[in-house]
Design a protein that fits this description.
Two copies of one chain form a homodimer. Chain A is mostly helical and about 180 residues long. Chain A has a single domain, classed as Orthogonal Bundle (Tetracycline Repressor, domain 2), CATH 1.10.357. Helices cover about 70% and strands about 0% of the residues of chain A. The first copy, chain A, has eight helices and no strands. In chain A, helix 1 packs across helix 2, helix 1 crosses helix 4 and helix 6 packs across helix 7. About 5% of the residues of chain A have low confidence. The first copy, chain A, binds a DNA duplex (18 and 18 nucleotides) through helix 3.
DNA sequence: GTCTATAGTACGATAGAC
DNA sequence: GTCTATCGTACTATAGAC
């Protein structure tokens, strides 16, 4: 998989998908290395602090990627309510789309950092903060769109928190009800 | 802890708290046994199918307990919107309250099956179904309250799904932002 | 920088005495 | 029914050759 990418990028990409789908504790480093065709030595060469450092990188890359995705979607429509609705529908469509690549056992779909956030909230302050930062970043994109559309600042912040909360809740419910299939 | 309870109940109680707080994969059977003062032999005597069977029991007990709690709260106020709002505030207060008991490292607070649901949605069909059933049960309590209050059935079902979704989303956000401290 | 071999620990699960 | 000892496996992490 991803022969064009360097070793480091392959490891991070595989880790991102596995952590998001299976969870932080259910994913072994060996599994990540198998999926990314990298040797264990390379992992500890690029991430001397091991699993936690790798997860931190995965979370931060996801934060940036999703922020960019939301931002691009919101630019397409001027009205804030319409554009946000459109952006969420786009996310949902991506999750319902077919697999990107053939894999031995599991898709490459990226859902959210939702599961990682829950798992690490009480066990790793480093990872909890990274997840919090990601949620805040995404929320701010919605808030700014609402402000640009004429909403008062405080109101925009409240609404964007509700939007972010509902999206994360919807992911849990969809996965549990198997509306989304990973 | 819980010297008055039988061995089986002590194991289930400890497992319920640990699975909800740390997660299914992060919680070891040894940890559950330490916390419940039970020997490993007893665990496999009561739960011959091991960890998954124990988690199933924990989910089902949580389903019943939370259903009862919501139902009791909703009976206190007649107006559906007011009573549901009140019930949610009650849940939030419980999470912000002090610890029930002194523990070596972690509280006994029960949050939701939220984390277990995410972890097992793609790895154990048995546990996924149990979580789905729990969410549906709780949702139905809200829906019935709305119907009794005069809402049309379809509208009540839609609203209750949104309520359930927002509660689960709010738990994620609160844990990640450390508004709740477990 | 890349890779293999392996240390050291914890896991889930089982066997069998009592 | 209760308990301990232990098996086999998987984990994170490290050492050291190349």
């Amino acid at each position: 998989m991803d022969a064009e990418l360097g070793t480091r990028d392959r490891i991070v990409k595989a880790a991102t998908v596995l952590f998001q789908n299976k969870g932080y504790h259910a994913t072994g480093l060996n599994e990540i290395l198998r999926k990314s065709n990298a040797p264990k030595g390379s992992l500890y060469y690029y991430f001397p602090d091991g699993k936690e450092q790798l997860a931190l990188e995965a979370i931060n890359q996801t934060k940036i990627f999703i922020e960019k995705t939301i931002r691009e979607r919101l630019e397409l429509i001027q009205d804030p309510a319409e554009s946000i609705k459109n952006s969420i529908e786009e996310m949902a469509d991506n999750l319902n789309a077919g697999e990107d690549e053939k894999l031995s056992f599991r898709s490459n779909k990226k859902v959210s950092i939702n599961l990682i956030a829950m798992e690490t909230a009480t066990s790793s302050e480093t990872l909890r903060k990274a997840c919090d930062s990601a949620f805040n970043t995404w929320q701010n994109v919605y808030a700014q769109k609402l402000i640009d559309g004429g909403f008062e600042r405080k109101r925009a912040e409240n609404l964007s928190l509700i939007i972010q909360t509902m999206i994360e809740g919807a992911i849990i419910m969809s996965l549990t009800k198997k509306v989304i299939n990973l």
